[in-house]
Amino acid sequence: MTDESFRITETNRVRQVARRGSYDRDEVFRILDQAMVAIVAFSERNQPTAIPTLFGRRGDELLFHGSSKSRLMHVLVSGQPVCIATMMVDGIVLAKSLFHHSMNYRSAVVFGCGKRVEDETERSKVLQIITDKMLPGRWGDARLPNEQEMKATCVATVTIDLASAKVRTGGPIEDEADTTLHYWSGVLPLQISASKPIAADTRSNGIAIPSYLETWLSQFPLAGENR
Ligand SMILES: Cc1cc2nc3c(=O)[nH]c(=O)nc-3n(C[C@H](O)[C@H](O)[C@H](O)COP(=O)(O)OP(=O)(O)OC[C@H]3O[C@@H](n4cnc5c(N)ncnc54)[C@H](O)[C@@H]3O)c2cc1C
User: Fold this and answer.
1) What's the pLDDT tens digit per position in 38-54?
2) Ligand 1 geometric centre to CA of 12 (Å)
3) Ligand 1 centroid, distance to 35 Cα (angstroms)
4) Are 37 and 84 in contact (CB under 8 A)?
């Protein structure tokens, strides 16, 4: 544990397979930055609910936006405690025994309370970070939100109070007695792939695919390749 780690409490202490857990800020941030969506969990009137949504990160803050009418946004600006989970699935782990089947993954769980972002300049900055997380460079290459659109948009931040990461890598765990069984075992690696961009019919006639989109795409294998 260093200063760069989140503090550990009974809320975020990884108990199950604790060796896979981490509280290292950089590790948690890396997972948060790679994940495309977050699942925000909250409880209202004794009814737990989990809602997937886009998000961004700025330092120790997670950033959210949505319709001013959205229940999720109402919850986030209310300041009540929320729990936010993100994950990337890296593979299906097939063991000789069904008991030891598993997945390879990188996941992060965050605890904190939200608040509304009021200041217009600040709201724009948050929207830019969320947009550029989805596709770096897009904020500067589309019409900016007008006054009416900004009014219809609620912006909230959640300061990370506690966090944990959990990562599973590697092959299947096998019981000694199972190793000679005649079942295939191993890992099916999985990763996100992308297809070629599809222009919006005639609306994109004569407009080149933006270079930032090409750059971003280059990190993913093209769907259908590698088989
Ligand atoms: C893609 C995927 C598939 C999974 N499939 C299964 C499955 O089928 N069965 C199963 O039992 N488990 C599965 N897990 C692991 C699961 O997320 C939990 O870690 C595990 O079930 C233990 O839960 P728990 O509440 O007992 O954990 P505890 O260790 O009691 O949780 C205590 C605290 O540890 C932290 N923590 C726990 N799990 C995670 C996590 N995944 N990421 C970050 N922090 C965490 C949280 O802060 C949590 O509050 C999967 C995980 C992923 C990402």
Assistant:
1) 999 999 999 999 999 99
2) 11
3) 17
4) no
